[in-house]
Structures are given as structure tokens and as C-alpha cells.
């Protein structure tokens, strides 16, 4: 736009040479935009390919084709359906409803791509941690356990909280406190802990 209208742009004799470019840019930005170009019809949307489906025509040589051809013929037909399945699974896991979740997108996509590989179409489903290269990676890079707060469902977590609260209320009762003190004294006097330990040592020896 600046090159086409350069001859029509006014000359700023009183503006330093170092700032004339900025003045021309501001003048161009203040000009009204052509409405016919702004509201022109959008380009046709790119349709997600079905798994295994590639564009019509002969497959180009993957070692000699352009990056775009390589993506359209060899990458998109596999990766895009996998991403669509990933979004569906993320919705099932309620990833869009909270900040923390046990769902790991990279794990799901790795498992999905491995099992939907056309070279493995006649083989049985393989879980993520049974995939050979995943097992080799985890040997050298073991994962920390997933926090219990992410593993439990809301129903399971509510049951644990309610159970703990009921137990706490019972232990606060004066009679229960007296019973616990008597049991503690009995264990100390009769060395119950040592007796139990010796008992299990004999059982393991058998």
C-alpha cells in the first residue's frame, strides 16, 4: 500500500528525515480500509480428513516432496483425527470444567497414534504403559505417583471425608477416650507390640 501510494503521499519538509517513515506509516494507518476486501467471502474451510484418508492424486515421494505435501499426505490424515479424539476424551474427563485433572493429553495421543498406526491394524490394542518405547523411557525416567486427589472421583472423595469425620467425632467421645487410654496402657505394660512382632516372625519362618 505504501509503495503504490508513494507518489501521492504529501511531502513533510519540516519533519526530520529519520522520522518521515513513521509519519508516512501513521498516515497510511489512518486511511479508510476498502470495505469490499474487508468483508470478502472467507476461504473455504479445511475439512478434517477421515482416518487413513489422504488427498486425491498420486502420493509424492516423502523424501523429495515439499513440506506442505508431506503434511497433507503423510501427517494430517493421521494426526488430525487423533486430535479430534483427544478433545472428545478431554471432554469426557471434564478437563474443561476444572484446572486440575488426572488426564494427560500426551499420554492419550501417544496411545491413540500407536494403536491406530496402519502398520498395526491387525494387532490387538496395547495400553500406554505396555508400548515398548514407553516402557524403555519409563525405566530411565520413572514418574511420580498421581496425587490421590486426582485419582478419586467426587463420590469416592466425599465418602472418605465423611468416614474420617464420623471417626473423628466418635474418638472425641469421653468414653472412647477412656477406652483408648486403657488400651495404650495395656500395650505398654504387656509389651503387645513386641509380642505381635515375635508372632509374625514365627509365622513367616513356617
Automatic annotation (TrEMBL):
<dbReference type="Pfam" id="PF00612">
    <property type="entry name" value="IQ"/>
</dbReference>
<dbReference type="InterPro" id="IPR043408">
    <property type="entry name" value="IQCK"/>
</dbReference>
<protein>
    <submittedName>
        <fullName>IQCK protein</fullName>
    </submittedName>
</protein>
<dbReference type="InterPro" id="IPR000048">
    <property type="entry name" value="IQ_motif_EF-hand-BS"/>
</dbReference>
Amino acid at each position: 500500500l505504501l509503495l503504490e501510494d508513494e507518489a501521492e503521499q504529501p511531502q513533510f519538509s519540516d519533519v526530520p528525515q529519520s522520522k518521515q517513515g513513521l509519519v508516512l506509516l501513521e498516515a497510511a494507518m489512518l486511511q479508510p480500509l476498502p470495505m469490499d476486501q474487508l468483508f470478502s467471502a472467507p476461504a473455504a474451510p479445511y475439512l478434517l480428513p477421515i482416518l487413513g484418508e489422504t488427498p486425491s492424486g498420486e502420493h509424492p515421494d516423502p523424501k523429495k516432496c515439499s513440506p506442505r505435501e508431506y503434511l497433507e499426505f503423510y501427517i494430517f490424515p493421521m494426526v488430525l483425527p487423533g486430535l479430534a479424539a483427544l478433545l472428545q476424551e478431554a471432554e469426557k474427563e471434564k478437563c474443561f470444567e476444572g484446572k486440575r485433572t488426572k488426564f494427560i493429553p500426551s499420554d492419550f495421543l501417544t496411545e491413540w497414534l500407536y494403536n491406530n498406526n496402519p502398520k498395526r491394524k491387525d494387532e490387538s490394542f496395547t495400553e500406554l504403559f505396555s508400548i515398548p518405547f514407553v516402557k524403555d523411557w519409563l525405566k530411565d525416567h520413572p514418574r511420580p505417583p498421581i496425587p490421590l486427589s486426582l485419582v478419586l472421583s467426587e463420590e469416592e472423595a466425599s465418602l472418605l471425608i465423611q468416614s474420617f469425620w464420623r471417626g473423628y467425632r466418635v474418638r472425641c467421645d469421653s468414653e472412647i477416650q477412656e477406652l483408648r487410654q486403657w488400651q495404650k496402657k495395656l500395650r505398654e505394660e504387656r509389651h503387645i507390640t513386641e509380642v505381635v512382632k515375635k508372632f509374625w516372625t514365627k509365622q513367616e519362618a513356617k
